[in-house]
């Protein structure tokens, strides 16, 4: 297997052509995200059965051939923890990956322990040790050392072998379609992150009144645009808590904008006029166009107890199937399921636990528990799945 750092555009194009011919490639990136609006892509790593290469994007400035490969339906791109690589693809070419494999997700659907880091996953699957010696590297600095390059290439060297073993296991377990749907769901979630309506996800937003929400919306959209313009992280432009504070106080002039102690920092003060303009714009929104207050979802009374009970049922079921519960459902998913079952007037669509492979794993079981069709008992106290579920035939 050849090993090289590619800094020439023609060599890069040749690599992309090779990947197309191979039909499957391991892929990873190194990036720095602390100081800019979007992460700075500092290195791309790829591995096929015959080639192992790193690409310096500071030297190879046109990466469009690679993003075309990632977004076509001819080449399988295999990644570990692929969210950032998906973001790079969406940002760079405006298209989503078509044949993406995430070995972190795949492992969670055939064994417990999700999410596993790359070193642990390679060790578990292949018995191969990978040493994370460059985790604090500033990948923007040049020249890259041989140690940095070797470390980066290790991040793709074993991915295809891991995926080969996972495929065989998932086929045997009958879970191949599960992972395919989870890959798609992960990409869907990354796409949703890019929505201009993500202001509705700010912590504490449910406490605000419609007029305050209109101010939040103006400030949030301004912050996104300003962060992109300045190429700074959004929270460096304006912290979330200060954004909500402005929405509550609704200052009428620049002096009032600065009334909060933390607003006197220089990086905030330079935007004071624009912030005042956003507040004024939110206050000028006509009544009929005010945003609705987001519904705060909660499980009250017996629903809280039911959610805890179903979490125990689900944990036992996942242990029985040797499946990572963290990938099957979050606490929020379980609460949504309980709320959906208890509220006959709930307009929400059926929760995630009632869709796809999750219904096969636990959806029907949880529904039967809620309907009183299942009794629980401790059958094997020393087992990691000690509960047994008995069907009440007369229900």
What does this structure look like?
This protein is of the alpha/beta class and 395 residues long. It has helices at residues 9-22, 64-71, 83-93, 103-108, 118-126, 146-157, 159-173, 176-193, 210-230, 234-237, 240-249, 254-257, 266-269, 272-283, 302-321, 325-328, 331-342, 356-370, and strands spanning 2-6, 24-32, 40-47, 51-55, 76-79, 100-102, 374-378, 387-391. It folds into 3 domains: 2-193, 2-Layer Sandwich (Nucleotidyltransferase, domain 5), CATH 3.30.420; 198-289, HRDC domain (DNA polymerase, domain 1, Orthogonal Bundle), CATH 1.10.150; 302-391, HRDC domain (DNA polymerase, domain 1), CATH 1.10.150. It is 50% helix and 11% strand. The strands form 2 sheets. A 6-stranded mixed beta sheet has the order 1-4-3-2-5-6, with helices on both faces. Strands 7-8 form a two-stranded antiparallel ribbon. Strand 7 and strand 8 form a beta hairpin. It is flat and about 65 Å long. It starts with a strand and ends with a strand. The model has no long low-confidence stretch (mean pLDDT 92).
- Overall 3D geometry? flat
CA gyration radius, whole angstroms: 25 Å
Structural class per helix/strand content? Answer: alpha/beta
The fourth-level CATH homologous superfamily of the largest domain is Ribonuclease H-like superfamily/Ribonuclease H
| CATH architecture verdict of the largest domain | 2-Layer Sandwich
Our count of domains comes out at 3
Which sequence of SSEs, written as H and E, runs from N to C?
Answer: EHEEEHEHEHHHHHHHHHHHHHHHEE
Total helices: the number is 18
Average the pLDDT over all residues and give the rounded result: 92
Looking at how many chains there are and whether they match, the oligomeric state comes to single chain
Largest sheet: 6 strands, mixed
Distance between the ends: 63 Å
- Using the coordinates shown, work out and report the CATH topology of the largest domain: Nucleotidyltransferase, domain 5
Stretches with pLDDT under 50, minimum 5 residues: none
Instruction: Give me the count of strands.
Output: 8
CATH class of the largest domain: Alpha Beta
What fraction strand? 5-15%
Secondary structure: helix percent: 40-55%
For the largest sheet, list the strands in their spatial order.
1-4-3-2-5-6
